[in-house]
Write a structure and sequence with these properties.
single chain, about 325 residues, mainly beta, AttH-like fold, eight-stranded antiparallel β-barrel, 1 helix, 19 strands
């Protein structure tokens, strides 16, 4: 469906310039862009990620995880501390093994990553206009970023793992955030993105901070993007809080209700900081009974995970 045929409130739309770099504050200003491809049918989850700070220090990584990797479970390749030109933008972004070419109109991108053991080549075409957190009545939660947007799409390409090529033609997701992330202010979050075909997508982000739950997200359904207003969430986990499955009832500003069921097939505990762990899971998904794929990320203080894992049943 063409973007001009999709209904979305203007306040929720980012500026076209938000497909590119932003002026960042010194001392902690940073922006980042991930591309997520979840392939339950191939047993692999693909996480491509790039970032840059106010001093032009940049990096890129590729993380693959899931049963397709074998006993090892995951492959993590990263390049950090790469100084990039101030004028280099995301229309032709080269950092380490990553080359990203966003079309600067919030519609599409071509991304490649060449590492020692893995290679990824993908085309991303958005299925709906990007949703900006800053358009919410309360703005973007300031402990997360100055602003960010989220967008699901169609992804086509291939991933190569130790010489084995897996082609894909499926759905995927990207986001883009910029500003300062105040990690110690975040007690917990759960971030989900999922699609069931090219015409149905759900995203929600619940951030627990200061005794408040900040909720952002959208439902894209029947040619309309509408903001999420509530999420009833229940999940199965082990003693270390590793998520196994979840059920969610998601409601939006138009009164629509969507039921999501998701089951983990791939899991990776991502140590983003010494004191913070993000439990990542690639999931097979059903949205209102329609099959698809999605990603659930649960952010926890490491001390809390360690304590919960030590408790007796």
């Amino acid at each position: 469906m063409k973007f001009d045929q999709i209904q979305i409130e203007k306040r929720m739309l980012p500026q076209l310039a938000d497909d590119g770099r932003h002026v960042l504050r010194k001392n902690g200003g940073r922006e980042s862009i991930p591309y997520a491809v979840v392939l339950p049918q191939h047993g692999v989850t693909i996480f491509l990620y790039t970032w840059v700070d106010a001093e032009n220090n940049a990096g890129a990584m590729c993380c693959l995880f899931g049963p397709a990797i074998g006993e090892e479970g995951h492959i993590f390749e990263i390049q950090d501390g790469v100084v990039v030109p101030d004028a280099m933008n995301f229309n032709d972004w080269k950092v380490g093994g990553m080359h990203m070419r966003q079309n600067m109109t919030l519609e599409s991108a071509d991304v490649t990553f060449q590492g020692k053991r893995v290679a990824v080549d993908l085309r991303f075409d958005a299925i709906h206009p990007a949703y900006a957190y800053g358009g919410h009545r309360d703005g973007c939660p300031d402990m997360v970023a100055d602003n960010r947007f989220e967008q699901s799409g169609l992804v086509k390409g291939s991933v190569t793992i130790d010489g084995r090529v897996i082609p894909f033609d499926y759905t995927g997701h990207r986001d883009h955030s910029w500003g300062h992330r105040d990690w110690p202010a975040i007690q917990h979050w759960r971030w989900f993105e999922g699609q069931a075909g090219p015409d149905l997508a759900v995203h929600f982000f619940e951030i627990h901070s200061e005794g408040i739950v900040h909720l952002r997200g959208y439902i894209y359904k029947d040619g309309k993007v509408s903001e999420v207003t509530s999420v009833d969430f229940d999940y199965e986990r082990d003693l270390a809080l590793n998520q196994k499955s979840f059920k969610a009832v998601v409601r939006d500003a138009d009164g629509r209700v969507v039921n999501v069921y998701a089951k983990t097939f791939a899991f990776f505990a991502f140590p983003v900081r010494a004191d913070t762990v993000m439990n990542e899971s690639g999931m097979s998904v059903e949205i209102d009974g329609a099959p698809g794929a999605g990603w659930l990320e649960m952010c926890w203080p490491r001390s809390y995970i360690d304590y919960m894992a030590s408790r007796k049943e």
